[in-house]
Specification:
By secondary structure, this protein is α+β, with helices and mostly antiparallel strands. The protein has a single domain, classed as 4-Layer Sandwich (Deoxyribonuclease I, Chain A). Helices cover about 20% and strands about 25% of the residues. The chain has 4 helices and 8 strands, in the order E-E-E-H-E-H-E-H-E-H-E-E. The strands form 2 sheets. The chain has a 6-stranded mixed β-sheet. Strands 7-8 form a two-stranded antiparallel sheet. Helix 1 packs parallel to helix 2. The chain starts with a strand and ends with a strand. About 5% of the residues have low confidence.
Protein backbone atom coordinates (compact mmCIF):
# COMPACT_ATOMS: atom_id res chain seq x y z
CA UNK A 1 0.00 0.00 0.00
CA UNK A 2 1.40 3.42 -0.88
CA UNK A 3 2.17 5.89 1.87
CA UNK A 4 -0.49 8.56 2.37
CA UNK A 5 0.63 11.90 0.96
CA UNK A 6 -0.80 14.96 2.67
CA UNK A 7 -2.01 17.58 0.24
CA UNK A 8 -0.48 20.82 1.49
CA UNK A 9 -2.56 23.89 2.06
CA UNK A 10 -5.59 25.07 3.89
CA UNK A 11 -8.99 26.19 2.83
CA UNK A 12 -9.03 30.00 2.70
CA UNK A 13 -12.02 29.98 5.06
CA UNK A 14 -10.33 27.77 7.68
CA UNK A 15 -10.58 30.39 10.40
CA UNK A 16 -9.47 28.28 13.35
CA UNK A 17 -12.69 26.54 14.40
CA UNK A 18 -13.01 24.26 11.37
CA UNK A 19 -10.73 21.40 10.48
CA UNK A 20 -9.58 20.25 7.05
CA UNK A 21 -7.15 17.50 6.04
CA UNK A 22 -6.67 16.16 2.54
CA UNK A 23 -4.50 13.17 1.60
CA UNK A 24 -3.82 11.06 -1.47
CA UNK A 25 -3.26 7.33 -1.09
CA UNK A 26 -2.35 6.04 -4.51
CA UNK A 27 -5.22 7.09 -6.78
CA UNK A 28 -7.60 7.65 -3.84
CA UNK A 29 -8.15 11.17 -2.47
CA UNK A 30 -9.64 11.62 0.99
CA UNK A 31 -10.71 14.93 2.45
CA UNK A 32 -11.68 14.86 6.15
CA UNK A 33 -13.56 17.85 7.52
CA UNK A 34 -15.03 19.27 10.68
CA UNK A 35 -17.45 21.97 9.58
CA UNK A 36 -18.06 24.72 12.15
CA UNK A 37 -21.44 24.27 13.84
CA UNK A 38 -24.22 26.59 12.77
CA UNK A 39 -26.10 29.09 14.82
CA UNK A 40 -29.32 30.92 14.24
CA UNK A 41 -27.55 32.82 11.46
CA UNK A 42 -25.50 29.87 10.12
CA UNK A 43 -23.13 32.28 8.35
CA UNK A 44 -19.82 30.56 9.22
CA UNK A 45 -21.20 27.12 8.32
CA UNK A 46 -22.64 28.33 5.01
CA UNK A 47 -19.43 30.13 4.12
CA UNK A 48 -17.34 27.08 4.99
CA UNK A 49 -19.50 24.67 2.97
CA UNK A 50 -19.35 27.06 0.01
CA UNK A 51 -15.56 27.29 0.34
CA UNK A 52 -15.29 23.48 0.47
CA UNK A 53 -17.52 23.17 -2.63
CA UNK A 54 -15.28 25.60 -4.52
CA UNK A 55 -12.17 23.67 -3.43
CA UNK A 56 -13.45 20.22 -4.50
CA UNK A 57 -14.66 21.63 -7.83
CA UNK A 58 -11.32 23.33 -8.49
CA UNK A 59 -9.36 20.20 -7.54
CA UNK A 60 -11.62 17.91 -9.60
CA UNK A 61 -12.52 15.56 -6.76
CA UNK A 62 -15.66 14.29 -8.50
CA UNK A 63 -13.66 13.20 -11.55
CA UNK A 64 -11.62 10.55 -9.72
CA UNK A 65 -11.84 8.21 -6.72
CA UNK A 66 -12.44 10.54 -3.81
CA UNK A 67 -14.16 10.81 -0.44
CA UNK A 68 -15.34 13.81 1.53
CA UNK A 69 -15.99 12.67 5.06
CA UNK A 70 -16.39 13.96 8.57
CA UNK A 71 -18.68 15.96 10.80
CA UNK A 72 -20.65 18.28 8.53
CA UNK A 73 -22.77 19.77 11.34
CA UNK A 74 -25.90 20.02 9.19
CA UNK A 75 -28.74 18.89 11.47
CA UNK A 76 -31.79 16.97 10.27
CA UNK A 77 -30.34 16.25 6.84
CA UNK A 78 -33.05 13.74 5.97
CA UNK A 79 -36.19 15.65 6.95
CA UNK A 80 -38.30 17.40 4.32
CA UNK A 81 -37.29 20.96 5.20
CA UNK A 82 -35.18 22.91 2.76
CA UNK A 83 -33.13 25.31 4.85
CA UNK A 84 -30.00 27.17 3.80
CA UNK A 85 -27.62 24.59 5.31
CA UNK A 86 -29.31 21.71 3.51
CA UNK A 87 -29.21 23.63 0.22
CA UNK A 88 -25.48 24.29 0.74
CA UNK A 89 -24.88 20.58 1.38
CA UNK A 90 -26.90 19.69 -1.72
CA UNK A 91 -24.75 22.10 -3.75
CA UNK A 92 -21.62 20.45 -2.34
CA UNK A 93 -22.88 17.05 -3.50
CA UNK A 94 -23.94 18.52 -6.86
CA UNK A 95 -20.59 18.19 -8.64
CA UNK A 96 -20.91 14.38 -8.59
CA UNK A 97 -20.89 13.16 -4.98
CA UNK A 98 -23.09 10.52 -3.40
CA UNK A 99 -24.11 10.17 0.27
CA UNK A 100 -22.92 6.59 0.85
CA UNK A 101 -25.07 5.95 3.93
CA UNK A 102 -28.28 7.10 2.28
CA UNK A 103 -27.43 5.16 -0.90
CA UNK A 104 -27.02 1.95 1.12
CA UNK A 105 -29.96 2.70 3.44
CA UNK A 106 -32.55 4.62 1.40
CA UNK A 107 -35.35 4.18 3.95
CA UNK A 108 -35.07 7.22 6.21
CA UNK A 109 -37.46 5.82 8.84
CA UNK A 110 -36.11 2.25 8.80
CA UNK A 111 -32.42 3.20 8.80
CA UNK A 112 -32.17 6.81 9.87
CA UNK A 113 -28.45 6.62 10.65
CA UNK A 114 -28.95 9.07 13.48
CA UNK A 115 -26.00 10.04 15.57
CA UNK A 116 -25.62 11.38 19.04
CA UNK A 117 -24.90 15.07 18.90
CA UNK A 118 -23.50 17.38 21.53
CA UNK A 119 -26.73 19.35 21.41
CA UNK A 120 -28.67 16.45 22.93
CA UNK A 121 -26.14 16.46 25.79
CA UNK A 122 -27.39 13.40 27.61
CA UNK A 123 -26.01 10.65 25.39
CA UNK A 124 -29.41 9.68 24.02
CA UNK A 125 -29.83 8.92 20.37
CA UNK A 126 -30.10 12.10 18.38
CA UNK A 127 -32.30 13.06 15.49
CA UNK A 128 -29.52 14.32 13.26
CA UNK A 129 -27.09 12.63 10.93
CA UNK A 130 -24.10 14.93 11.32
CA UNK A 131 -21.35 12.56 10.13
CA UNK A 132 -21.29 11.90 6.40
CA UNK A 133 -19.19 10.05 3.88
CA UNK A 134 -19.66 11.54 0.42
CA UNK A 135 -18.05 9.64 -2.44
CA UNK A 136 -17.41 10.38 -6.08
CA UNK A 137 -19.72 8.35 -8.31
CA UNK A 138 -16.85 6.07 -9.40
CA UNK A 139 -16.06 5.23 -5.78
CA UNK A 140 -19.70 5.04 -4.62
CA UNK A 141 -20.22 2.06 -6.93
CA UNK A 142 -17.51 0.21 -4.98
CA UNK A 143 -18.99 0.62 -1.50
CA UNK A 144 -19.49 -2.83 0.06
CA UNK A 145 -21.20 -1.65 3.24
CA UNK A 146 -21.52 1.33 5.54
CA UNK A 147 -22.59 1.51 9.16
CA UNK A 148 -22.53 3.51 12.37
CA UNK A 149 -20.05 2.10 14.86
CA UNK A 150 -22.25 2.09 17.93
CA UNK A 151 -19.68 0.48 20.23
CA UNK A 152 -19.29 2.34 23.51
CA UNK A 153 -17.37 5.56 23.21
CA UNK A 154 -14.69 5.66 25.90
CA UNK A 155 -13.55 9.24 25.36
CA UNK A 156 -13.97 11.57 28.34
CA UNK A 157 -16.50 13.64 26.39
CA UNK A 158 -18.46 11.24 24.15
CA UNK A 159 -19.31 12.43 20.68
CA UNK A 160 -21.34 10.95 17.88
CA UNK A 161 -20.36 7.41 16.85
CA UNK A 162 -18.18 7.23 13.76
CA UNK A 163 -19.56 6.32 10.38
CA UNK A 164 -17.55 3.50 8.78
CA UNK A 165 -17.50 2.46 5.12
CA UNK A 166 -15.96 -0.61 3.54
CA UNK A 167 -14.87 0.08 -0.02
CA UNK A 168 -13.60 -2.27 -2.70
CA UNK A 169 -10.49 -0.35 -3.73
CA UNK A 170 -6.91 -1.12 -4.56
CA UNK A 171 -4.44 1.64 -3.85
Amino acid sequence: MPEPEEIPGELPCNGGISRFLAVNIGDLSVCAVYVPPGSSKDGPTLDWLDCLREYVCKEGYARHNSLLCGDFNVPKIDDKSNGKLKRALKELKGPGFCDLYRKAHPCVTGNPGCTWGYREGDGTKGASRLHLILASESLARRCRKIWLDGSPNLWPRPDAPPLVAELDVEV
